[in-house]
Amino acid sequence: MFSLRKVATLGQHARGFKKTVEQLNKQHPGVLKNALTFVRVDFNVPLSKTDNTITDDTRISAAVPTIKFLVDQGAKVVLASHCGRPKGKANDKMMMKPMAERLSKLMSIPVASVGECIGDEVTGAIAKMSSGDVLMLENTRFHAEEEKNEENFSKKLSNGAKIYVNDAFGTAHRAHASTAGVAKYAEHRVAGFLMEKELKFLASAVDVPVKPMTAVIGGAKVSTKLPVLNSLLEKCDNILLVEQ
Question: How far apart (Å, rounded) are the C-alpha atoms in residues 10 and 222?
């Protein structure tokens, strides 16, 4: 299934991430050792409405290879993600602590979490990090500045990170602070393993499609998708529009 908005904008936002984290490490051996590394993951996972437990950890599992690689290289890994649509306000049902706990179990290592994504608590937690440590920031969308890609918020969110890794394919098409704004403050901007995998799949599916090919398009506003629909007309045998 294609997301038209992703197809239309992902290429633009991914231009600064032509290199993968593995390529960076090969070109600059030791660059990850003790380096503060900001990793945008997509931990927007489904939660139970009764007890707020995670009902599907697929997205967390998908990020493990990138996080493990960074940990093995001795980076100080700071994870950022959103969960749900809190509309710029803190929401106890959308906190990131359950995701940190699930990641800890999946990787069999401690994963710390903080109750904010910017500010003194975060700065203090980062100052205590050692090589190979992992820290989960609080939901970035608890701040309205995240979706506005507000510059000052982006700078605070970056916290002086040397390396920015985007491994959140599901949100990479959005020009938010954690997906675009933070990147410009890092010395190195690279893609994680999941991002690399998805981009390769997208390229093969769109640039060199296997025929016959059908695109299933979902969304509320067809008018906003017309440019990409016109592009897909040349590549697809069938296009199915599904109203959401």
Answer: 19
Q: At 12, is the pLDDT very low, low, confident or very high (cuts 50, 70, 90)?
A: very low
Q: Which residues pair with 217 in a beta bridge?
A: 241
48/117 same-domain check? yes
Write out 149-209 in H/E/C secondary structure: CCHHHHHHHHCCCCEEEECCHHHCCCCCHHHHHHHHHCCEEEECHHHHHHHHHHHHHHCCC
Q: In this structure, are 234 and 168 located in the same domain?
A: no
Q: Quick one: 214 and 191 in the same domain? A: no
Confidence grade of residue 68 (pLDDT, cut at 50, 70, 90): very high
User: 16 lies in a domain?
Assistant: yes
Contact 21, 166 (CB under 8 A): no
Range of the domain at 224: 209-243
Supply the pLDDT for residue 222. 66
Residue 103 has pLDDT above 80, yes or no: yes
Rounded Cα distance between 28 and 20, Å, is 12
Question: In this structure, are 182 and 145 located in the same domain?
Answer: yes
Q: How confident is the model at residue 221 (pLDDT cuts 50, 70, 90)?
A: low
